[in-house]
Prior knowledge:
single chain; eight-stranded parallel barrel; about 40% helix
Amino acid sequence: MNISRRNFLRQGTLALAGATLLYRPLLAAGAKKEVMGIQLYSIREDMKKDPLGTLKQLSAMGYRNVEHANYVNRKFYGYAPTEFKKVLSDLGLSMPSGHTVLGRTHWDPATKDFTDAWKYTVEDAATVGQKFVVSPWLDESLRKNYDDFKAYMDVFNKSGELCRKSGMKFGYHNHDFEFSQELNGHKLFDLILENTDPALVAQQLDIGNMYHAGGVALDIMRKYPGRFELMHVKDEIKSSGKGEMGSAFESTVLGKGVIPVKEVIDLGRKSGGTRYFIVEQESYQSLTPLESVKQDLAAMKKWGF
């Protein structure tokens, strides 16, 4: 239960790398509708033990969209893409986005093409009904050299081109290092935003992760208006023990921490270009993960979802 998302990604996803939608009506004529969902990493242990039973509980709570964090051997939580799509559909759930790390093993610099493993990733994401294929990590080996880092951003753009052929979009999800690490005097996050084509690469802003490295979501959103199609809605609280990502903080139920979550959401709605709001909570204090995400949903409903 205490495994960090960073270690989870390294040990799991990186190792294998290989009712109706909840809409909030907008007043502006012709405005696109919002989608609210839950990142299944929030309840990772429950999904590991009983994915079907856990999804049933989420549906009963009122969630209508999920985002996966488990794609292994061309299966989602043990289900083939067509099977998982049916499982979700039978429960009134959809999966517009999912997390699978795009790593070195997925791009062949000699042929300047993606390996079959990444092509299968994109193919299976389309089959299950995703609109976004989101990579939530950048290996340390890819962020040591300025020129190599910039070159890999072109791989991001090429992944966007590949996803577009299947009617989807590639995306990137931040952790904390993007705001603490620099190359040639530039923060990695700025290099990512400046060297990826917004028509090909969507940004999923995790408003909690950045806080661990001093990042302020409101400032970032004002600096890059319209760039954040997806958001990981998260709150942070001072940790009583070892915090997440080596910091003194850990995530908590929305509205109970130090991040002005509603203000961030409202800015996303107004000028951030955000349509997909995905709840994620990784630490739970005295609650169970399922109790936590139930309270998170109540907070989101209170804020208009």
